[in-house]
From TrEMBL:
The keyword Transferase applies. GO terms for biological process: methylation. One of its GO terms (molecular function) is S-adenosylmethionine-dependent methyltransferase activity. InterPro entries: DNA_methylase_N6_adenine_CS (IPR002052), SAM-dependent_MTases_sf (IPR029063), Small_mtfrase_dom (IPR007848), tRNA_Adenine-N(6)_MTase (IPR050210). It comes from Roseovarius litorisediminis. Residues 37-130 form the Methyltransferase small domain. Gene3D superfamilies: Vaccinia Virus protein VP39. This is N5-glutamine S-adenosyl-L-methionine-dependent methyltransferase. Keywords: Methyltransferase, S-adenosyl-L-methionine, Transferase.
């Protein structure tokens, strides 16, 4: 039993076409495709060390660990129940993943003494000054936590090594706020919109910055998630490239 939930209060969900079996609370924050897309966008290689801020049940880090054998994974999670669940998921999936419990504004000493090739995060999407809080406390922390986006970026920039990368996924309507925070601390910024289908606006965006980077900002052509202009039939309608990311664990590269 993971701390905080009985097994009856958890579901076991397939990710990457069943390559990962992830326990998640039936009530609370449940990961969708967003952390999978985030993990797929990270250009990590064997021997790289990766820190995920706000790792939840561990979906993003474990997807990356399954795609890139030999990557060293560390996660920071403020909620002890989710940190315990992430540890259990790592053990069950036989992926080496160190999870620490703590706040990103008051990190454990073990993290403060290290720097990472990549820092990744899926910060809360909603600004609660203009939205309604979720009733479940765990879900609310994941979707509308009190920590400003600027603090997430500040913490990530401190922990990333020189020439290393920070990558985050966020709602497109908060991109101006996120870009401002990245611009203060990182360079070589690149944004990749995630578009539901042709002719639709992007609700989500991936943003990457490099420590000490000097390249000009790049706004890439959007990554299309679904085929066609409309969803005409029941079931999934992902593009071939997106299906390979979600089902086979393929990479989602930023365009060269």
């Amino acid at each position: 039993m993971a701390e905080g939930w009985t097994d009856a209060q958890l579901s076991c969900d397939d990710f990457l076409g069943g390559q990962l079996k992830i326990l998640q609370p039936l009530r609370g924050y449940r990961a969708g495709i967003d952390p999978v897309l985030l993990a797929a966008s990270i250009p990590a290689g064997a021997g790289d060390c990766v820190l995920e801020l706000g790792c939840g049940a561990g979906v993003a880090a474990l997807c990356l660990g399954r795609r890139v054998p030999g990557v060293a994974l560390t996660g920071l999670e403020v909620q002890p129940d989710y940190a315990a669940l992430a540890h259990r998921n790592a053990v069950d999936n036989r992926i080496d993943f160190t999870i620490l419990t703590g706040d990103l504004n008051d990190m454990p000493d073990e993290l403060r003494q290290r720097q990472y090739s990549h820092v990744i995060a899926n910060p809360p999407y909603f600004d609660r000054r203009s939205s309604t809080a979720a009733q479940d406390a765990g879900r609310e922390t994941a979707l509308g936590g009190e920590t400003p986006l600027a603090d997430w970026v500040k913490a990530a920039a401190r922990r990333v090594a020189p020439k290393g990368y920070v990558t985050m996924i966020q709602r497109a309507d908060r991109l101006p706020e996120l870009l401002a925070a990245f611009s203060e601390r990182l360079g070589s910024l690149e944004a990749l919109p995630l578009i539901p289908r042709r002719g639709r606006s992007a609700p989500l965006v991936l943003l990457r910055g490099r420590k000490s980077g000097r390249a000009a900002f790049r706004l890439h052509d959007g990554w299309k998630l679904h085929k066609g202009k409309t969803h005409k039939h029941d079931g999934e309608n992902y593009t071939k490239a997106t299906a390979c990311v979600l089902r086979n664990g393929s990479a989602l590269p930023f365009p060269a």
